[in-house]
């Protein structure tokens, strides 16, 4: 923690150790904003540089720098996931530095205790008051409370008894409570008939009630939102009356992360990235490539379909196509078909099943382009669009069969071209294309540097997180909910990074429409990045441009460029 770093600076900058190799190493390691996951630079102008000092300047990350400096005979201290670490070189005793134990006791002991106390106080201040509505209410559903003569009367009796016994009703406004009760009663009433066609048994109704009492809760009641917003957390939320399973904000990752990441390794190989220039502290791909800002910041809406994987990967591919073509792929019709991807790409990599609304993985699109064929624009294959063209989705949540030709969108005119004439195949993007552990991975968490470097060198890319109610209700700030999550369920697109207050974040494009969050985007803490996908560098240069414009429904025509 920074609290622990302060006394380290005091010791290492004291006259007793000034000018020693230890002081030189410590000044670098204990510098402001430098931690175990950060890139570091060794300054050549430091006094007392030993032989081999310039060789160590080539070490671009903390672990490599520590190993190099230790080899030069230095004692190197750093802060990592396990706390304070130290490494001593063979010649460390010749430079007159204190022992590891002595420095640790003198410099860290008091600060560590003080830092833990401050952190505990801060954490307690940030924890919202307990709300019964957030707990498991199924334990309050009792058979003895079913006293009615019909499923509706049983449901009414059960609901009132649960609200009274749990106190959950106190966490809801009158309107929220009324809506919750109606949804619960409806769910219990619609319990399926028994196999023989008879009415549900008492046991079946009780089972349905136990499920419905949690499933029909509002996802972010007003009082809960107010509590979160007053807790001093780095993000804000807004009240949200939809339920946990409401398809308005769908996810869409397919189970099996280990299978997708197998063979990729926990960290991106250094020889894949250029690395000749380190990324800055703050970076936005829209600023770096202004001619593609509109494409990079274009907001889409996946609607009632678990196709986040298709939207996230297409968002990154759109952006990288624009960058590769020098801005030529940036018109209003230059938008890869999410509908085609959800159907055809899913069919190619999900055992022949084409329903991309059941989830998938972003890496599939990159492999499809490399191994199969290209992807047509949205104008050729609209995304299950209906009526006004604002990208409303079929309530069934099922992707249609993969098309083999451009599909008409009645009553509007068809796309003025053939599918095979307008397929975009950015070869290279799938070779290599692999998933890697992100900065929020629990097992051997890597640094954020490689992901930053990949964005800095090539443009936006996708990452996966464990999203929940807080993300659905997100309004502003740096959201940390989901950090350390195990069950990945959502894919989004990283377009840059920055710092808000003292917290670093990933600038992220979501696929829930411009009405959600911060105009369709959010700032996610790095600890949310559990896995990310590296798309290979595009080598293909020839594309069917310009794409003809057809007056058909396009995904939310909103840009955050």
Tell me what you see in this structure.
Keywords: Zymogen. One of its GO terms (molecular function) is cysteine-type peptidase activity. InterPro entries: Papain-like_cys_pep_sf, Pept_cys_AS, Pept_his_AS, Peptidase_C1A, Peptidase_C1A_C. With 561 residues, the chain is an alpha+beta fold. It has three domains: 2-126, no CATH class; 132-230, no CATH class; 257-559, Cathepsin B, Chain A. The chain has 17 helices and 15 strands. Strands 4, 6, 8, 9, 10, 11, 12, 13 and 14 form a nine-stranded mixed beta sheet that branches. Strands 1-2 form a two-stranded antiparallel sheet. Strands 3-5 form a two-stranded antiparallel sheet. The longest helix has 27 residues, at 100-126. The chain is globular and about 70 Å long. The protein starts with a helix and ends with a strand. Residues 1-65, 68-127, 257-271 and 385-396 have low confidence and may be disordered.
Short note summarizing the structure:
This protein is of the alpha+beta class and 561 residues long. It has 17 helices and 15 strands.
Which descriptors would you attach to this protein?
561 residues, Cathepsin B, Chain A, nine-stranded mixed sheet, 17 helices
What's the helix and strand layout?
Blueprint: H1 2-12, H2 21-29, H3 53-56, H4 62-71, E1 75-80, E2 83-88, H5 100-126, H6 151-166, H7 174-189, H8 202-215, E3 218-220, H9 222-229, E4 235-237, E5 240-243, H10 257-261, E6 283-284, H11 285-288, H12 293-296, E7 298-299, H13 308-324, H14 338-349, H15 363-371, E8 434-437, H16 449-458, E9 461-465, H17 469-472, E10 474-479, E11 490-500, E12 503-509, E13 521-525, E14 531-534, E15 558-559
Parallel strand pairs: 10-13
Antiparallel strand pairs: 1-2, 3-5, 4-10, 6-11, 7-15, 8-14, 9-11, 9-14, 11-12, 12-13
Helix pairs in contact: 1-5, 6-7, 7-8, 13-14
